[in-house]
Amino acid sequence: MVRFPPIPCLRSAALLAFLCAGALLPALPGTAHAVEMGEDGLHKEPWFTVTFRDVAEDIATAQAEGKRLVLIFEQRGCIYCRQMHEKILSDPEVSDFIKANYMVVQYNMFGDEEVTDLDGETLTEKTAARKWGFVFTPTIVFLPEEAPAEGSVSQAAVATMPGAFGKLTFLNMFRWVREKGYEGEEHFQKYHARIINRMREEGKAVSD
């Protein structure tokens, strides 16, 4: 499974107060648009899918729609989550690709909503995050096309992207998974570098 070097939004009191107080900060410069805030303090995209968070059922639902299931873990006050929504997911090139190819379900890193793991264990969002080893927000988890016969989400995930990245890295990760790059010999970093080199050869601007 592919993992990225994390860019954390940790829960410690000092960092949470200083780095993750996004809900208390003024609008970020260059913000594309304001994002709706839910009662749980998480930013909401209108195209996120609300489910009962039974992961096996969600994989099957996504598959029936010709899509892949993605879980996004966020937390209240996370400035990196806010940047992801306002600067990355607001971009039509990114959002249109994700909507066409993925079913996205949002999880609250410290939430209490019920979750059913692939192994049948009933958890809460926060205990699921601990069980699966997710400690950064945002963390984006890519699931396989079909639910495995055994194992948990952390074992089944084909790729995990923790932290906030620029548009091209972010979008290329979704493209790489859609193309099943994790089954081939070309690691994501090489895939990403190849696309950047191609863009430069075509005279296109590359920002990340």
UniProtKB/TrEMBL annotation:
Listed Gene3D superfamilies: Glutaredoxin (3.40.30.10)
Which SUPFAM superfamilies would you find in this protein's record? Thioredoxin-like
Alphabetized UniProt keyword annotations: Signal
The domain of life for this entry's organism is Bacteria
- Segments forming domain Thioredoxin-like fold: 62-151
Q: Name one Pfam family in it.
A: Thioredoxin_2
Signal peptide range: 1-34
Q: What InterPro entries does the record point to? A: SoxW, Thioredoxin-like_fold, Thioredoxin-like_sf
Q: Under which name does UniProt file this protein?
A: SoxW family protein
Native species: Roseibium aestuarii
